[in-house]
Amino acid sequence: KPLELRVAEPFDNDLGGNDCLDGNCDDEDFKDPVNWLVDENRKEHRTDMYEQKDLIVRREGVVKLKVAFTREFNSAGDTLRLEFKTGKAPAIQYGTMSTVDCKEDGKLDKTGWSGALEVNNETIDLEIYIPPNAAIGKYSVKLSLRTLLEDNSIHISSSSQPSIYILANPMSELDTCYFDKRTGLFNKSEEFLDEYVFNDVGAIWRGSVNNFGPKKWIYGQFQEPVLDLVCHLLANDHRTAKASGGIWLRDLIKLVRVLSSNANSCNFDGVLQGNWSGDYEGGKMPTAWNGSVNICKEYIKNGYSPVKYGQCWVFSGLLTTLLRAVGIPARSVTNFASAHDGDDTMTIDVFIDENGKDLKWSSDSVWNFHVWNECWLKRPDIPKSMGFDGWQAVDSTPQEESNGVSQCGPAPVKAVREGQAFVNYDTNFLFGEVNADRCTWMTNRYGEVVELTERKTGAVGHYISTKAEGKDNFARKDLTNDYKFKEGSDEEREAFERAVTFGGSYSRDMADHMMKNYSIIQRELLNKSRSTLKLEIITKEFAIGDDIEIKLVVTSEDGKLVEFVQEPELTLYSTYYSYGFKMRLFNFLGA
């Protein structure tokens, strides 16, 4: 006769409707049949800090559950199967649908999804193994019982089970986000996990090179509705919503890329809309936000319409929340005097005419500061010999497009430091932000570049900062040496030349103004040794209302005596932290 099931401490949740897959069906047997051992599993998988009471587990882990019956389970004629589905178009071949037949031998096959059962009188103890490359997201679950009857027909019953959430596992050596303490960066793995996965409060540095400080940010990755929002974003991205999209949910490198593009609203009605205009009507000023949870709540309340408004530190704080929520170690990172190299030349270019007038040909700029993120990932897509596992830079602030989408990274921080600008993803852009040279080019009356009048090699990439480890430690940790060699050193110049060679492109936005062989001329001028004057403006820190003392230092860098006659003109601008928004305050002309 068909196997009959009875309740075994059911999971306290709405199970939804029962339905039959095929064959003879007796869905009454499946009323609350499974005890998912939620508290035990959450504790084992270190997910018991999430506010929502659902079953939340990690891949490369084992889930335990119990099923009780009215008679002994007969392995010769009874088969217990669990079916897991995630995403918009679940497909077995792309890893978003998995079926697990539970075997009575008690052994788990860890080459993929597998199940094992042990019969204890009238109760079956089940174990389900989730592989380390399982798709991240919210899963629907169905339990089916197949019984071979005496007439060789099969009785099949099926019951919907509570949804479960599967996260990345930074505690497992087999997961891409695993932290290996052998790196020497931390004394213990727990120090790393406590800060970059489990800490729900942090600090983000803002300001300028001469005056900066931290802003407390509440990440709140364990609060509702953060995890549901992340799963919504992952399921509805245009890359993941099709049958073949499972790779974007299984591969954390690609998944991080999905989240970096969905944190902003430029392409897919993502979470946050940027605004640098100074007019914030219809939304909140970016400075009004102090955490990510209210942004997530407002996004859902608005029917998944973008929240207004954010700037770089808000985007970064939000992305840290989204990454930590799914188990990926992450932190916010601030770069002071941050370059925006809009044309991939690895230089921040200013073009002037023979009279010194700025021709405004370039979209390049230098921001007072810019905030992006780092996440900890292995890079199996890059040869291991290159040593690019570890911190990866990723940015959700909409700047330049990457593969047609407003996204940036993940780029290995070590590759940025070494100028390996060809390494995926967007390493060239990240290198420019921290190590671009600031160049002034003179053109002739025909619009041809004829002279490099000034080149500053240390103008950008200062005091790169993040929060130090420790839940109650809001001290600053300096990351500058992680991103660049000592300014002016041979290694730093070699990294720059390497980045120009492998990652730069030279005539994209300025073709209308440049001669045909502009890139060749520019490279020659960059490498040309010439007598130069260095002009440096030195100011002391000052408060609003104070007089400003300015000292102009003129240096002949090659030691030669130079005579020149010049009428100095000093222009003072007020500058927002980003996008080079300026307002001229006054000009001073002197003799």
TrEMBL record:
Ca(2+) binds at N435, D437, E487, E492. The active site is at C312, H370, D395. Pfam families: Transglut_core (PF01841), Transglut_N (PF00868). InterPro entries: Ig-like_fold, Ig_E-set, Papain-like_cys_pep_sf, Transglutaminase, Transglutaminase-like, Transglutaminase-like_sf, Transglutaminase_animal, Transglutaminase_N. Binds 1 Ca(2+) ion per subunit. SUPFAM superfamilies: Cysteine proteinases (SSF54001), E set domains (SSF81296). GO terms for molecular function: metal ion binding; protein-glutamine gamma-glutamyltransferase activity. It comes from the Eukaryota. Its cofactor is Ca(2+). The keyword Calcium applies. Residues 304-398 form the Transglutaminase-like domain. Belongs to the transglutaminase superfamily. Transglutaminase family. This is Transglutaminase-like domain-containing protein.
